[in-house]
C-alpha cells in the first residue's frame, strides 16, 4: 500500500503528512486529537542520516508536545549497507534512534507502530519493535535475516534451516510467523482507522512479546527462561 493511501485510510484526505526524501513526518488529527506520525517510504534503507532525522523528529515531539501519541509507519529494507555509513557509526545512530523511541514511551507518549509494506533487519528493530506494540498489514513482508545470511552466521546448513522454518516460526520470515512469535501484536485489516483506535486503547505499555509468543506457540522458551531469571534474581 502506498503511504499516501494508507494515511488517507487512517486520517482522511486532509491528513497533513508529508514525505521529504524517504522520511514521512507530520501531525494528523485523529478523533479530534493531534497525533504525531513518523515513518519511511519506498523500502528505505536506514543509514546514519535517516536514522538521525527520525531521532530528531522524536526528540522534537517530546520537547514540543509532551504526551502526544506517536504512530510509526514502517517500510524499510533494513540498515544501509554502505562503508560510508559504517565508518560514520551506523550502529550508534540506530541505537540512538531506538533510545529516543524508548524514551518517548517512558515519558508517557503512546507509541504504536505499523508495518505497512516491508520491514527488515535493523531498520525494523530500531523503530517498529521499540513501540508499545507493533502491528502489520496482512500483505506486509517481515524478516530480520534471510536464511542464507542466517546460515553463514549460525554455521547451520541452509537446507537444515529451510527444514526448520517449515515448523518453527523463529526460523521463518513472513508476517504470520511474527504474529505467532509475539513480535507483531496483530494484523490490521478492513477499517484501519478503527484498528488504530483500538490499538491506542488496548496496546500494552509493558513488553508482552515473550508471553504472546508462548501463548501463540510460536516462541515457546523465551517466557519460561525470563521467569526463571526473575525468580533467581
From TrEMBL:
Molecular-function GO terms, alphabetical: ligase activity; lyase activity
Pfam families, A to Z: MdcE
Keywords from the UniProt entry: Lyase
Domain CoA carboxyltransferase C-terminal as annotated: residue spans: 1-233
InterPro entries reported for this sequence: ClpP/crotonase-like_dom_sf, COA_CT_C, Malonate_gamma
Any Gene Ontology biological process: carbohydrate metabolic process
EC number: 4.1.1.88
Keyword check for Lyase: yes
Protein name: Biotin-independent malonate decarboxylase subunit gamma
Organism per entry: Ideonella dechloratans
Gene name of the encoded protein: mdcE
Amino acid at each position: 500500500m502506498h503511504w499516501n493511501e494508507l494515511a488517507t485510510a487512517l486520517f482522511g484526505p486532509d491528513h497533513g503528512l508529508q514525505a521529504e526524501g524517504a522520511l514521512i513526518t507530520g501531525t494528523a488529527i485523529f478523533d479530534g486529537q493531534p497525533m504525531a506520525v513518523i515513518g519511511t517510504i519506498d523500502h528505505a534503507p536506514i543509514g546514519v542520516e535517516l536514522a538521525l532525522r527520525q531521532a530528531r523528529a522524536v526528540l522534537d515531539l517530546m520537547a514540543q508536545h509532551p504526551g502526544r501519541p506517536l504512530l510509526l509507519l514502517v517500510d524499510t529494507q533494513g540498515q544501509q549497507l554502505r562503508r560510508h555509513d559504517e565508518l560514520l557509526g551506523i550502529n550508534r545512530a540506530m541505537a540512538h534512534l531506538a533510545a529516543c523511541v524508548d524514551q518517548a514511551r517512558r515519558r508517557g507518549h503512546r507509541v504504536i507502530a505499523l508495518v505497512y509494506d516491508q520491514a527488515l533487519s535493523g531498520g525494523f528493530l530500531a523503530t517498529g519493535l521499540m513501540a508499545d506494540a507493533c502491528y502489520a498489514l496482512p500483505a506486509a513482508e517481515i524478516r530480520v535475516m534471510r536464511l542464507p545470511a542466517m546460515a553463514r552466521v549460525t554455521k547451520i546448513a541452509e537446507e537444515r534451516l529451510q527444514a526448520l522454518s517449515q515448523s518453527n516460526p523463529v526460523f521463518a520470515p513472513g508476517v504470520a510467523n511474527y504474529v505467532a512469535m509475539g513480535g507483531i501484536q496483530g494484523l490490521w485489516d478492513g477499517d484501519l482507522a478503527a484498528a488504530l483506535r483500538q490499538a491506542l486503547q488496548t496496546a500494552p505499555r509493558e513488553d508482552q512479546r515473550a508471553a504472546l509468543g508462548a501463548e501463540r506457540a510460536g516462541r515457546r522458551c523465551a517466557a519460561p527462561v525470563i521467569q526463571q531469571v526473575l525468580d533467581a534474581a
